[in-house]
Structure formats: C-alpha cells, structure tokens
Prior knowledge:
Number of domains: 2
Mean pLDDT: 82
Amino acid sequence: MGKAILILALGMSLLVTMLIFSLNKNTNTGLATAVNSYSNTKARLIANSGIEIYLEKLREDKSLTGNFLNNSLMDGTYDMYISGSDTIYVKSVAHYNGVNHISYVKASRDSISFPKINAAVYVSSNNTDLLLNGNMTISGYDHDINGNLIDSSGVSGMGVDNPADSAYVADSLKSKVSGGITGSGGDPSVNVVPDTTDWLALTESYIFAADTTLPTGTYGTGTVLGTQSHPIITYCSGDVNLSGTAYGYGIMIVNGNLDMTGQFTYHGIVIAYGQSTINTKTTGNAGIFGAAIFVGESVNMQSTGNAKLLYSKAAIDNARVNLKSSRFNIFSWWE
C-alpha cells in the first residue's frame, strides 16, 4: 500500500512537472508570436507614418527628391527614397526590433485650377471707386510674357459684372485714360463679362498651395517671387507694398491692400480678394502682364504714372503649365 502511494505520488509529480514544462513551452511560444506580431505591426506603422510625413514635406517643398536615411520614429527608424517629377515615387523602409517593413506610394500632383480670364483687369464689387490718371495703360490686347504687344486679339481691357458698373467706369475715366483702355468691344474697352467663379474657394486653394507667404510689409529691389522657368504661388497675408526693381511670375494672392510702385512687374495672375475694402495702387512704371482681378465688397483703384496692366496669354499659360499643386492623387499604395 505504501509503495502504491509512493508510485502514485511520483507519477503525479512527474505529470505536474511535464504539465508545467508544457505550459512554459506554450507560454514562451505564445510570447514570441505576440512579440513578433507586435514588431511587424510597429514596423508597418512606422513605414506608413514615414510616407505621410514626407508627403507633407513634399506639399511644402515641391522640388523635394532624394534619399533621407535613418529617420527616428516611435522607437524605430525609417529610410525614405523619393524620385520623379510629374509622377512621384515614394518608398519607405522601416526598421523596428529586427523587423523591416517596406511601403511604396505612386502619386501625382493635382492640377491647378485657373479662373476664366475675360479681361486684363476684372473688378467685382458692390462699390467701385476709381482714381485713374497719368499715362497708365490698360489693354486687353494680347502681349508676350514681357509686356510687348503681339496683336489686337485678346479680351476686354476692363471687365465688370453689370451694365451699371460699365457705365460708371466709362463715365469716370478722364479722356487720356479712356484712350489707354483698349481691347475687345470698343473704345474704351470696358465691358460686362460673364463670371461664375467661386472666388473664396479658388483663393483658398491657392493659399493652401502657396510656395511663399509675405506678411504685411514693403518688399523692394531684389525681391523675386518666382521666375519664368519656375513660377510660384505667392500669398500676401496682409497689406503689401511691392516696389523698386523687383518681379514675380505665377499667381499672387493678396488678402489686403496692394501697392505696386517703381519698376515692379508681375508676369501672371494677380488676385486681390477680400470681404471688405480693397485698395489697389500702381504708380511709376509698375505693371502686371497677364491679368489682374480685384474682388471685394468695396474696391478702390488708383493708378498714376506709366503703370501698365496688360493681358498676356503667354504669361497666364506659363503659370498654368508650370505651377504645381500641394495636393496629391495617390495612384497606388503598396506594402
């Protein structure tokens, strides 16, 4: 009886030992599986987060390309490889706890939306005030990107929303200025032009895609707001004075008053947009070659000297072809 009890006790002890061993083995295997699953998930998250981070960098720097290695994120690292221009290829390789994960994205930038240009100068306002004198020129005839006349094709010199505005503008102009507003539809070329543009939505899309932002201030000689080969979107977030020998190419959005003096020239589209009063002033030899658009509750236009506001299809097309959006179309995301 004693031997039986001893054998039973030894058997139970051996069984418990085997059971404990089996449990420990299963626990270790389960733990290893859990750790490996966690590491793979973490590496995947790092790789995809890295792509999101660099898509934001690409939004801010539209010429960003190259290899960007050993970026730290969430206790791991990732390497980023970016190539392409029209079509952009982004590869992210993440490393975490001995596990690697690769994600690929193929994308392209959205196209920039452009308003329909019906006039060299378009004014949309419930209250328009003009103080135009001197030898200024407003012309809807087509000019090249540098403001040289090409031919008499083109658009209206000045466009407005309704016949009352057209009559007011024509009646308010001095005779020598009237002779300087040329374009389609007679002399002076001040015409009602159709417009259904949502200016708030359009300007907000430009502001989102802006390459540079100018706060309130004066910007003089040496200021370059884009070049012919690399036009940009400029956002002026307040009242600005653009003066001296300076220039720009592309699209410029002004959320405030615009004062252009001296030799400043802009090649493309200038939009002054606001919910209140917009004061615009061009003096000296300043000029806009492309189109100027002034939209606000009240628009006060002043111009003196030899200022030139000239329609240029070439300047507008140069911006249309070469400007890049900050928004992306994602063709594929593979991992």
